Amino acid sequence: MKTDQCNLVNVAQQRFVQSQEPGARRNPDFLAGEFLDPEARERLRGRTRDVLRASPFYHYMLARTRHYDMVFIRALMDGAKHVLILGAGADTRAYRFRDLVAECGAVITEADLPTPIREKQERARLLGFEGAARHEPLDIGAGDLERRVAALLAPSTKSAVLIEGVSTHIAREAFERLLRELSVRMCSSSSLVFDASSAPTDLGRFRLSVDADSGQASARSFAFVQVAHWSPAALAERYIRYAAEAPFFTEDSILEWARP
Hints:
By secondary structure, the protein is an alpha/beta fold. The protein has 11 helices and 7 strands.
């Protein structure tokens, strides 16, 4: 079986490679390389883009990055005073959009497992971004999830929660428990955005069909309403101008929910 080369390069590394692409193929995450160690950056500079371009996920990741950028900006412009980014290890939005965050008077919290979030905090400090985001350790599979979520979100504050590239990697029960806790803690008009896979799994991971009706039913079950459902085809049409020339990942959708 041929190995998908994207599996050999993590998301942060792929974003860095993609940020060096020309024109319409360029990933807007111009800080991706800054959060990699120098050796990794130099090693990746020599990696042929053609190898990664053969992977459907590589192009989906570009669409996903652009969409979450749009969601982040829109949340701030719509009055969210707190943006919580879960699984934030490779996320750079707090730093790329720090001027807009300051202008809107918002607070950004990045949460991830203890080791990667400590490393992220130290790297941000070294890059001169100290204070651009709060950094909090959070293990979604831990037994004290309720206490941790309660500490991260104030029910009286309009918030936006972004969970990019997380649901496919944790147990279904843990992710559903997280959704329930978020619905309790987020106030009316707050928003939640996450991506979900429809690929079959025997590992007990969270899965959701790519059709909008499944997303709507799931939203209701967790006391949210579905605002938008972005299928793989819709993401490709919206964000990949060269879509006809590239293979595209067809397993993951992005869901936008809100608290009524």
